[in-house]
Amino acid sequence: MASSIYFCDSKGKSLLSRDYKGDIPTSAIEKFPFLLVEAEEDQANATPIIQFNGINYLYIQHDNLYLLALTKSNNNVAQIFLFLHKIINVLTDYFKELEEESIRDNFVIIYELLDEMMDFGYPQITEIKMLKEYITQKSYQLERRSKKNQALGPPSAITNAVSWRSEGIMYTKNEAFLDVVESVNMLINPQGKVLRSEILGKIKVKSHLSGMPDLRLGLNDKIINAENNKGVEMEDVKFHQCVRLSKFENEKIITFIPPDGEFELMSYRLATSLKPLIFVDCKIEKHDKSRVVINTRIKAQIKKKSTANNVEILIPIPEDADTPKFKYSHGSVKWLPEKSLVVWKLKQFQGGKEYSMYAELGLPSVTIEDPQFQLKRPIQAKFQIPYFTTSGIQVRYLKINEPKLQYQSYPWVRYITQSGDDYTIRLK
Amino acid sequence: MEGHDMINVYPQVIEMFNTDDLEAKRMCYYFIGTYALSKPDLTLSTLPIIINDLNTGSPQVVALALKNITSIPIREFFKESIRPIRKSLKSENISVRKAAIFTIARLWERDPKMVNDEGLMATLYDLIEDKSTNIVAAALTVLLDIQDKSSDLKLSFNKGQAVYLADLLGNADDWDQLTILNSLMNFTPQTHDESYTLIDKVISLLHHENSSVVLNTFKLMLYLLNYASEIEEYIIRKMTSSLTSLLSKPDEIRFLVLRNVILLILSKPKVFHFDVSLFFCAFDDPIFVKDTKLEIIYLLANESNLSIVLQELAEYSIDVDVQMSKKAVRAIGNLAVKLEAASKTCVDTLLDLASNDIYYVNQEIVIVFKNIFRRYNQFDYALSKIISHADKIEEPDSRSALIWIIGHFARKIPKAESLLADLVSGFGEDPLDVQLCSLTSVVKLFIQKPEEGQDVVLEILKKATEEVDNPDVRERGFFYWRLLSAQAKFPGTAKDIVDGEVPLISNENEQLDPIILEELELNIGSLASVYLKPVGQVFRLSKRKLLPQSPAKSNGFSNIVGSLHSTSSSFAEARPRADTINSNNTSTSESGISDQRRVDEFDVPAIQVNPIKKQSNLSRRVTTSKSSLSRKLSIRNVFH
User: Fold this and answer.
1) How is the beta sheet containing A291-300 ordered, strand by strand?
2) Do A122 and A16 have their domain in common?
3) Of B139, B155, B171, which residue sits at a domain end?
4) Do residues A120 and A20 both lie within one domain?
5) Residues A33 and A68 reside in one and the same domain
């Protein structure tokens, strides 16, 4: 339970606040800018949770804004952070962009939303779709409609068992799109050994279905057989709240009534030792005070039929390097001095192929930089491989059943594997 | 809207109050709530309007009025709230009923007696059996909230109630699930079977997308497992992976999960097994995440994963971030002290790092070597290598450490006297800690090598007693002076006192107190689990939680059935133990006085765990150095 919620600017000064409990004096927020300055000075203690004078400040950042909850009691931390993120999602959905300006312009509706989303410090209705049904942004323009809505109050769905879907949704063409997206994270040491690798998978659904459809998703036995240690072990699966969890637990069947529109049905994590999908071998030699020479070789270690798209290899170079010269047979190479990077881009990279690139950059003869102070930044690789999942997971079927309407429906599935945020190769 | 003169428009706001427009009304309520106490008489005049609002047919207006009537801290408002609460509880509209339930909680904060006298507590209990899950959850939320603050309310569910509540989980939304999970912590299984029944009902929630639901399910299961006679291994595996899969969530959630992983490593090292490579840092992790991961890596290190751990730590110690780098070096040094079998490898890694000649790395290396030399005798070959960097050691803590090393091992170091003389040449300008350390070291040198040390000891004692203003330094100077003068009368005394046996850095187990751990386990995912401190210490008003007694309470955690990790026994041996190193506490360790902790037992935070800094005084950081007394009293943690 949060005592109060604050929106603060980049300096930590309060822009808007909502007090739910009245047990924390307003002077508490005035300390926040100082706490931020202190955190700035001492990065290791710049945790998102600060305790000061018996008051706990839990905050998240969104662009130039701080969103924070204050509390005095021993709280459920995840609940508060998730709620703060939820506020950002909701407000971004309402105002397109959430920034100082849009907060000042829309404070009335923000109060209204904060009133509905939390009561006495406990989260209430946080589903965007539900909120939008009765809190409309341009109510002054649509006066009549908003009056009508006021009389109606929160929509019936809030009281339904299926709180995430309203009744009476209609589509002329009933379709469901599934996207299976796997992000591969990998940490590779200078010798090419994989230190850590994991697959973060997601199944995203875009549902354009009428009525109250009941869906059943069939996957190949990668998940189902997790207990038998057969094949790849799916370490952990998390489901959207619409999935009947006990059904999955007992029968390994994924059934659900989907929310309307786009949502993430499930996510999973697989810790498994993988071979690098895009192998990068990079040697960077610094010739004393004159130039730096980069030799890079990359290889697509995927099936011959597959192709990696939008491949980018980001190679760190010294900050004061200049006058680049490149030699390469494929793609394009760019020097980004503001980021101290050389970026090698390949639109397409077919499985089994191997390319190399040579770059030479000049270094100033006089360098202010302390020679001992070497920037330790790794090489990063980015890529996308369509029609392919690293884990081998496959959608066998998606059965759609709407008991009353009995319509014809069309499920579509796409697969893609891509680099995660952390596909890095360390340099010597 | 920030202006202070807003109060002057109060009368106009009251005029506005009767509007039909909900938005305008909402703002009026907000205004009145803010300025209620500044103009009590005006505020009182709004009461009829609010009562009128409560009688309208619009659910939203009624809910709004309910939420506000008890927010205004004036007695008349409380009294007038009772009837509308009763009426609204019977409303057909769920949101009005929920608002009424939360209004009871607000009223309780203002006047608990009124809530009791009016029988509203009993009403809340009745609502637990309501048809609507929303209402059940709201009633539970309020009861739990009151339980936290009230001295006499103690919820306790029997098996039937617990099962009834658990069965509601399937139809509840995530926030309601959270409440129900939390309320189930008030159920004490009386038999092992009761515990298994409940576990079966909640285990599937470990797959929930909401991290908070996952953490609370974890907490509940860990609690229930205390009442199980044996635990199937797959349950533990499932719990472990449900936690680690949260490591791909936003930074704040990851931080929370990482802190709770530390808790589990400390409290149930034999039960939960975490793969150390999960906690390797990504280069763009925020510092606070890296920092926490580093701690976990240190705690998880044992003989079997030593080589990858050391490689990883060595990688961090040449990180761009200076603090991270220093902490990594500190971790390697602490590992050397913690795991005897690993000490040689650690020492070699450190020497290798030192040969890179990176300024800030070497400052830290000297500090960790002080403890390594103190703990082990076999690393004399490292001594000369460390000494060879002496001219580049500049930071106060590092210089103290180096001075201590030279003074303590003067016998083994050729030309120790000239080295030390160089190091203490700026004695007058040195910071206090370095001065104190220098004093002791020159005396040690003199005791070990009277001929060679004579000049420098005289010079420093003279400066300490004549030129330095600080009473600590001066007094110590005089003390040593007299001690050395009395040597003829009491031969050997000076040696015993200054250069006697140094207490061994022990591997004494400094686990958190089991009771504190038990309490923290019941608070997984809470703020206390982030601070890793006893709840009562951080939240003075909150109640202590302990495992309730029951015939079913047993030691199921030692009885895990199924294919156990083969490494479990070695893991247990290599269980993280913090060592009594007060690496920064130079003044005490030199004089050989072992550091007795006199702090109240329950006031001791997680010693080996990096405590989140408790910020009690913003100006504290301005003061440059602590007095040695405050230093003795403060317990330094392993990384700092």
Assistant:
1) A278-287, A291-300, A354-362, A322-328
2) yes
3) B155
4) yes
5) yes
Same-domain check for residues A346 and A378: yes
Task: Identify the band that residue A366 occupies on the pLDDT scale cut at 50, 70 and 90.
Answer: low
Q: Which tens digits make up the pLDDT trace of B97-111? A: 999 999 999 999 888
B325 contacts: CB under 8 Å, gap ≥ 6? B316, B317, B318, B319, B360, B361, B364
* Full domain range(s) for residue A55: 4-126
- For residue A346, the distance in angstroms to the closest alpha carbon of chain B comes to 24
In a domain, B212, yes or no: no
Rounded-to-10 torsion of CA A328, A329, A331, A332: 30
CA distances from A119 to A324, B69, B99, B525 (A): 60, 13, 8, 21
CATH label of the domain that carries residue A404: 2.60.40.1170
What are the chain B neighbours of A124 within 8 Å (beta carbons)?
98, 175
Of B71, B205, B250, the CB nearest to A245: B205
Span A128-178, pLDDT tens digits: 888 888 787 654 433 444 444 444 455 544 555 677 888 888 999 999 999
Residues 6+ apart with CB under 8 A from B633: B599
Residues of A in contact with B523 (CB under 8 A): 74
Task: Let me know: does A37 contact B501? Beta carbons within 8 Å.
Answer: no
Task: Say whether both A259 and A304 belong to one domain.
Answer: no
Does A122 sit within 8 Å of B102, measured CB to CB? yes
Single-letter code of the amino acid located at A274: L
Q: Which residue has the tokens 């030479």?
A: A360
Q: How far, in Å, CA of A187 to CA of A198, rounded?
A: 9
Domain boundary among B449, B468, B500: B500
- Closest partner residue to B170 (CB to CB) among A58, A76, A244 is A244
Are B241 and A112 an interchain contact pair (Cβ–Cβ within 8 Å)? no
Chain B residues whose beta carbon lies within 8 Å of the beta carbon of residue A19: 33
Inter-chain contact B284–A151, Cβ cutoff 8 Å? no
Record: contact A120-B308, CB cut-off 8 A:
no
**Strands A65-71 and A55-62, sheet pairing:** antiparallel
A42 within a domain of the structure (yes/no): yes
CB contact under 8 Å between A249 and B204, yes or no, is yes
Helix, strand, or coil here: A90? helix
Residue owning tokens 């659900």: A256
Q: Residue B10: which CATH number?
A: 1.25.10.10
The partner residues of A411 in beta bridges, in order of sequence, read: A176
Q: What is the mean pLDDT of residues A249-265?
A: 90
Choosing among B1, B60, B201, which should be mutated to test the A contact, i.e. which has the most A CBs within 10 A? B60
Q: Are B297 and B331 in contact (CB under 8 A)?
A: yes
Cβ-Cβ contacts under 8 Å for A217 (sequence gap 6 or more) = A178, A203, A254, A255, A256, A265, A395, A397, A398
Q: CATH number of the domain that A42 lies in?
A: 3.30.450.60
Structural domain count of chain B? 2
Tell me if B639 is assigned to some domain: no
Test mutation, A16, A142, A238, chain B, max B CBs within 10 A: A238
Kindly indicate whether the ipTM for this predicted assembly is greater than 0.90, answering yes or no: no
C-alpha separations of B154 from B78, B178, B543, B545, B551 in Å: 25, 19, 11, 12, 20
Shortest CA distance from A42: residue in chain B: B323
DSSP string, B257-289: HHHHHHHHHHH-TTT----GGGGPPPTTS-HHH
| CA-closest candidate to residue B445, choices B478, B417, B473 | B417
Domain with B133 in it: 1-155
DSSP state letter for B153:
-
What residue ranges of chain B have pLDDT lower than 70?
A: 1-4, 506-511, 563-640
pTM of structure? 0.84
Inspect the interface and report whether the beta carbons of A78 and B256 lie closer than 8 Å. yes
**Which residue type occupies B248?**
S
Q: Which of B210, B241, B541 sits opposite A236 (nearest CB)?
A: B241
